[in-house]
Amino acid sequence: MFWKFDLNNTSHIDQLLDREGVTLRELMEEEDVLQECKAQNRKLLLFLSKDHCMQELVTLITEEPPADLEEKTRFKFPNIACELLTSDVALINDKLGGDESLLEKLYHFLEQEPPLNPLLASFFSKTIGNLIARKTDQVISFLRKKHNFISLVLNHIDASAMMDLLLRLISCVEPAPLRMEVLNWLNEERLIQRLTELMHTGRDEERQSNASQTLCDIIRLSRDQANQLSEVTEPDPLLAVLESQENVAELLKNMFEGERTEASVVNGTQVLLTLLESRRSGLEGLMDLYSQGCERSYTVNSSILCAIEPHLKDFQQLLLNPPTVPRSAILTTVGVLEQPLGSARLHVARLVASLLQTCDLSICQEICRLNTMDLLLDLFFKYSWNNFLHLQVELCVASILNHSAHADLQNPGLQNHEERPLFQHCRLVQRILDAWEENDKNQAEGGRRRGNMGHLTRIANTVVQNLEKGLAHSQINDLIKELPEDCRGRWESFVGETLRETNRRNTVDLVSTHNLHSSSEDDDMESPFPNDLSIQQAFSDYQIQQMTANFVDQFGFNDEEFSEHDENINAAFDRIAEINFNIDANAAAFEACCKERIQQFDDCEEEEDIWDEKEINYATQIKSRSRYSTWMICLRKYNLLWTASFGDTEVSSSSSWGGPPQEGGEGPQDTSWSSFTEFQPFIV
Length: 684
Fold this sequence. Notes:
This protein is mainly alpha-helical. The chain has helices spanning 12-17, 24-28, 33-38, 42-48, 51-62, 71-74, 76-85, 90-98, 100-107, 118-134, 136-145, 149-155, 160-171, 176-188, 191-197, 205-228, 237-242, 245-256, 262-275, 282-292, 302-308, 312-320, 343-357, 361-370, 372-382, 387-410, 419-423, 428-444, 453-469, 473-481, 485-507, 532-543, 551-554, 587-597, 619-637; strands spanning 330-332, 335-337, 580-584, 641-645.
């Protein structure tokens, strides 16, 4: 059979373009217009690049469509117009980037009063961003002539599309010299300072949030690009301003000046946290902290820390009196939460954890003087179900215990400047013991385990590890010895018994080793394998083995498994003749069960013609399955074991399956069952 293909098929768009008077709207109605455009359809591209078509496309993405249109189709054509303009076709890019009248029409979109339509703003940002990447020189030159460009963008910063546009200006300009010119231009326009001003408590929350996110992204982009550049270049002017003490101080002033709001505290703290970023955050950062200590810490610009230190008391006050946010009681799965922790206090906890990780002596001393850790521990035990907070407190404790030793090595005269308040004023050991005993009592009364017990276990382990082999173990030992005698005894008992048992349980593989027998079997049925639990455990250990560095090398088959033995393909079967099969079973009980529960197969049934029409009946299949199930139950119930050994012992059996052997061969022989006594060694 031959298939016929019409290889000269002309698209419907080509047919439309051949017609006189075709309009842009008619072409945009076609489903494959974008596909044809990206496929470089010459007729279509020439039509789209005409002046009146380009003007109409730009109008569609910059002007509100009529309000009387159906909502589903109202933004259909603006969306298609945006896709056509950003299809990355050279002819369209050249026309749009080289025609100043089109650029002026695009720019006019920014001159509207806020707020902008968010969808049209995204179309505008995408189109300008594509031009910045493809027609860089022309577009940057055009924008730099517009003295109010940055002001207009910041005026619409409540639209996230404007934030994206700023980031494209910073990250999408090539080559490097031109990018540096753009950065210097943005710095001359005081972009960073103006974004910082938008963080003032009196500003709109949406503007604050987008300004904060823009500053955070600029910090990360600038640092990433600085790390990627191999040649030595002049420093990034925007990053230099962001890290300057004057700008950080201005940011903190805007956060705390006037009435403090949760939005200003959260957004401002996010910028500070980004400036302090030194490693991966969260649990991965905690693992780095445990494994690397202070030696691998990122060196934070001292100007940032100098600007933050005078305001630590303001952050301390936020822990005591967070900004009032009108909230009603929250019903949770563990009860009613009258006063939530709040995002402001959580961000303060994150900031304290980041500051402690810098190992800055002055910062750590001020935190100790303010007794900030005591407040954080109070919140840790008060909000026992807020794991976000628990992680930050754990990071703080780990930083103090790990980093204080490093500071002592560099400043021998300042020993115990961090850990002493932690053990004495904060009463860390007593709090751990009291919380543990209270949780045990609560569980004994039928309550549930508290949500902070996992992090509390990790904190206790951190103390023990530093007590035993940390760099400051001698100082911590002295502090433990200074505890009251009863508390010291409770601690030693807790470490030696309770904590050790908890760690043992936590390291057990989370694999159930319960009886795997089917629920359909008898409850009194024994396992056919005497060591099935040990086998299950061994298999579980194999399945759950941790991925080590050489796991990939060890995974799979051994090459020796595929080597030829004695250069004979039958070598693998040569020793089968030496295998002896032994049945270790309770023969009498097994015979009784077979007679009671297993019926003999009827081998005398007449053969039927498979083509004869007959009624469908599943009884035979059910009967067969029933026999098989009964057979397997008998095997498992009476512990019938097959054992194989490569010794010289002959095969022996106490009975046959059908019944006891007939004496002297007298009586009828039951041929329905096999007799293992007749088995002989065989060779394949």
